[in-house]
Amino acid sequence: MSTWGPPPGVERPGNPGSGAPAPASGKSPNSPRDLVGRDRELGVVRQLLDHVRAGEAAALHVEGEPGMGKTLLLQQVRSMAVGFTCLSATGIESEATLAHAGLLELLTPVRHLLGEVPEGQAAALGVALGWTSSGAPADRFLVAAGTLSLLAAAAVRTPVLVLVDDLHWLDRESADAILFAARRLNADAVGFVTSARSGVLPPELVHGLPALHLGGLDDREAGELLRADVAAPVVRQLTDLTGGNPLALLEVSGRLSAAQRVGASPLPDALPVGARLHTVYDAVVGALPDHVRLAVLLTALDRGVAPSAAPAESFDEAVARGVLVADGVGHGFRHPLIRSAALRLASPSELRDAHRLLAGHVPRGSAAHAHHCAAAATGPDDLVADALAQTAAAARSRLGYAAASAALERSALLTRDHRVAADRLAAAAQDAFVAGDLALTRGLVDRVLASSGASAETRGRAHFTLGMMEQYAGSVARAADHLAGACAALEGAELVDALTERALVAFRLNDLATFADCAAGIEAAADVDDPAQHLRLRFTGGMARAIAGDHESAQGMLGGLTDLALSEELRDDPRSLLLVALAAGLTGTVGDALARAAGRVDDVRRRGAIGVLMPILAISASGRAMVGDHAGAFAEAGEAVELADWLGYVADAAVAVEQLAWQYAARGLHDEARAALERARRLIDRAETTTAAAHHAITAAFCALCREDLALVVDLLEARIAIDGGVGAMGEPLGVAPLLVEAYVGLGRADDARSLSQRLADATPVASPVELTAQVQRCRALTAGDRAEAHRSFEAALESYAAHPDAFERARTHLMFGSRLRRDGLRVLAREQLRAAHETFTELELTRWVRVAAAELDATGATVRTAGDGEPRDLTSQETRVALLVAAGKSNKEVAAALFLSPRTVERHLGSVFRKKGFRSRTELARAFAARGDAGAGG
Questions:
Q1: CA distance linking residue 736 with residue 728, whole number of Å
Q2: pTM for this one?
Q3: Contact predicate 660/634, CB 8 Å
Q4: Rg of the chain taking only CA atoms, in angstroms
Q5: 567-594 per-position pLDDT tens digit
Q6: Is 647 in a helix, a strand, or coil?
Q7: Secondary structure (DSSP) of 401-415
Q8: Among 474, 499, 504, which residue's Cα sits nearest to residue 484?
Q9: Could you confirm whether the keyword Ribosomal protein appears in this record (predicted)?
Q10: Cα–Cα–Cα angle for 803, 809, 815, nearest 5°?
Q11: How many beta carbons lie within 10 A of that of residue 364, not counting itself?
């Protein structure tokens, strides 16, 4: 989404509620002539449309209580969008469980542009909307990406306006796809205006979208709405009583006597305002003749089928009475509250009869037939339950997992056999998990576990489903409990999967004993002839040995893991790549492992399997940072965070957000770093992950160091020593010491620095990895009282870092050594070290450290040469992502498909890269990134 947003102050005070405009006493706020009191809101809309005409994407979400005029506002927006391609969808309660129903309505007018959408996205979108019968295996995310791409293709020709009314009644699959596009389109002429009842939508669904709240009218505006029919004092009374609700004003005023209108008689004691507003429509519907009320009820239940299930005269009379309106495709309601009244007033038997009637007018075997038959059922009915199960399977094949879950949940209620019913509830929970609905998954699993008919195996599967959901989108601590339950009930390959996931959760919680137990369990249960089980055996066994310090044995088990994951047998098991990335992260070989697996990671992207891609990117970003590839780390961390937002992931998101904080701080973007750290802290609290606390503290300390807040560095890291002895992010003893020693030295606490440096040396085994040895040597150099000893220790640290790819820490060692040489009066030698630091920081584009090195060089009297027009201009994470893929030789369309962006957004980011870095061609860009060793990272 672009930076467009409504100007401050446009929100109008008003009570949260729900709805749109309506009829009243011959008047309706749905009539354009009655749109009053919305000048400021229309001004916001004009700004949005102007923004879109200028080629920028923009979005606006409108909320308000019933009768505030949301539908009318959207109609007015459409009339103002001259020269736009207007695409619209309306949420209908009876269609809320029909997967992609809203998206089909919205996108059908631009279906002819499907050929301009990336192949995988087009296939997924075509399958979801029924435009094609089959496609390659894909994830629901590709439907959202395809929606974005199709809207972007339409915007090449004319500006596009997307209007979604009653978003709260739109099916979840459609809402997710539309809002994904609204958030992600940037340099495309696409505008989005959505509306919903206040307080009805889950907050996370519209989080981050510019919002406009429709409040009540003031006295003057209410008087304009009511014209001269009502005296001014009465208008003021009515405005106070109704909260300025336009619909309520019209309804109430229309029921006043002539004397009451002019104030000669008091107003009635009980007016239909607020929560009683629906009584107006209850009376309207209740007064209808039976045959007309049936037509209205049928329309409320299924507007598409209703005309064939009742006489045309009944619908004509409903139109004549101002209840229904002919809308070109059938009949709709004059106002949503009339529909609600029709459903509320119908008795259970009337509702069942109406559904039975509708079922007789839809094709047998269709989803609509199954749903109507289910609603008509008076008790368990296995035939209907089976039909709903088939409907769920069909929805799942079209990537409609929320719809599949709803169908299976209803099927379970109608199933006589309690064991089969429990199986269906467990399957419904699995679909809810894939749809990303944590609350529903929890509720369904609770029902499975409470069911007397659930077998041990079914309970185990339910535990596994919720354990997976909690691990990624909820509480990791709760995930541990559910996965333990799964391990106790499952067998064979399912047990191996459950043990693997339980081991991962144990690792997140720093429960290393449980990790070892899981590894032993897999070793006993795994079928080594099954590649997937063999991979999990080697992963957990190797990790357990590495955690125990048996690195040689661990390497023997983990060494061939990448080859196994890349085997043809595991091509359709993208999760195997995640295990490879995790193992590589522990062993420090992420860069090599992902370079070899790049083709398979591209396959994961093409499939849209972002549930796997997101944690892979988070792990890869951390791994790249460890080996000094900070452009790749910045790019992948940013993408991981964006994908986590869509998925609702928590624990893995925290890791990626922390990496972003580190990258921001190293670039001198301290406000951004603080915001990222705070966000990571909230995510960690939600995930209840204990090991992440150490990593967060170390990242926060580094960010404080970059701000030169050494006292905070000390506070953060001394607290970690008090909590767990100061272990590092990877569990290394006294891993907090290098930063803490540096802070002690900077604060003049020499004794504390020397003491901690010695403790670190004592805790680090002689045969440690070179980077740990280098840290010990650097700490010794920082705390050495003797000049010669300090110089020797710095030289030893640099020699150790020469055998490790982390260019950043090597450059920081050059910086510290150069600073010491300068203070010792050895300026010529100091310049040599400081120039090495400056050159490396410049190559890494870590601008905060470039400035520090430049200042140190300046203090030696050296001239600091900078490329271009002065300080480097920082790329954003997304710009870095685009630059890396272009440097790898991808076209703009290929970059767009890989990053789930539009080609125009890629073009804009690339233009920004060219301007900031002074590149004149793609070849020059590729050459620059290749010289730094970055080409190909991040995608």
A1: 6
A2: 0.87
A3: yes
A4: 32
A5: 999 988 888 988 988 888 777 677 778 7
A6: helix
A7: HHHHHHHHHHHHHH-
A8: 499
A9: no
A10: 115
A11: 10
